[in-house]
Amino acid sequence: MARQSYQPKIPVALMGNVHIAEGEATQSVANQEDIKKLFPNTYGMPVLTIEAATGELARVETFNIGIILSGGQAPGGHNVISGLYDGLKKLNPENKLYGFLGGPIGLVEHKYALLTSDTIDEYRNTGGFDIIGSGREKLEKPEQFEKGIEICKQLGIKALIIVGGDDSNTNACVLAEYFLQNKVGIQVIGCPKTIDGDLKNDQIETSFGFDTACKVYSELIGNIQRDANSAKKYWHFIRLMGRSASHIALECALQSQPNICLISEEIEAKNMTLNDIVDRITKVIVARANVGLNFGTVLIPEGLIEFIPAMRRLIEELNDILADNEEFNTLEGDDNKREYLKLKLTPESSDLYRSLPRSIARQLTLDRDPHGNVMVSLIETEKLLIEMVSKKLAQLKASGQYVGKFSTLSHFFGYEGRCALPSNFDADYCYSLGLTATRLIAAGKTGYMAVVRHLTRPASEWVAGGVPITMMMNMEHRNGKMKPVIQKALVDLNGAPFRHLEEHRAEWAEAATCYIYPGPIQYYGPSEVCNQPTKTLQLEHGC
What is this structure's pTM? Predict the structure, then answer.
């Protein structure tokens, strides 16, 4: 009850009457002509900034909103809904909020719930998406759109809020464009959600859930490091959720200071092979063993394998081969499937595929997600690295170059961080995003993503607004075809967060211990303890 009663802090501009200021016309980050052709009604719209206005907040005509939670869970989703609900009722107590159940499929199958204060109050400042559930179905077919129009008209819904990551918000823009082309009068606003941290750009400083998830993982890493420094006998290989980008691994390294943190983007930039990565890890293990330190921690981003150039080429080939491949799906047994793929791959990729442990090779061929991506969370990269490092150390020991002991434990931290109670930062941020979406809808906007900026300042000084979704798009190869998608943000190797890691990694690798033990998320106490944003945000903004 104490956590539910927490009152999120919000920007001053969202407290009363507002004015929405429009900036200059925008364009997509790449493939401008292609994106403009696909989105003629939502392309080129200006960036919006919500400013405080004089006078009392005027009551608006009654309107209803539907909300969809799309993709994986992220801490703070319930506060987006709470902010949306409170914002709606503040504009007009007669307004209604409907939640579509189970994600986008709820819109298509007309499964929904009317969200009331009794329900909302139970979920304020709590983690998860269980208030209405989520799902990974895509909204991309006209028949799906028509089913959505049907239920929206039935319920008197003026606008849909789609809470999700880059693919989900791309779907939101496709839906907004369709509604405008067909003049159905339904608006669509997106909301930036993903713990992965890869939905960010000049306008979106961070996606919600990233702060909480990284703090949860960093606590676990700190606990493991405390144990490692106590027992002094295990090397812990820790794979961290994050899909393709390494933002989570980098942030957790900044918070906990492990002995080794691999960054996928750096590995790609340096054209490193699997053997190069093994050599880097082995070098640190040997150096620590030489001074009697036969323990340590290695952080591994879950998307690592896709960033090793040769592995990426293999995965791309597998994606194309497996896309709608009925022949492959009829094969029985892993051996038959393995032989089939060896013949279909290019010689270079076939050789690499043959060299992989059978378990890893099999994991690379498992079902893709709805967007055609390999499900990297199912690839046990940490076990692959343990196996390869162990073999390398055995060779070094045989030649007298290694005198230590190599005992290992492997971990994967993923779902532990998805539904935690949101940090104060995420609770405040998400509530503000919900309020922002309400104001954008009231102003008649569509095809926008709600944003809140200047997040390293006190919440009262945050700046809310909207960014055209088309502004963030480019064309990418998906499921064998070129499709418009929001461009993923990878770790910037010239950015302050990575530079900080680079400057300190040698010290963290070989010192007796530089570990930090962050401990659990704090919700009450001094602001510097409870309300701090991620190290990534602080370094990016020079704090």
Answer: 0.93
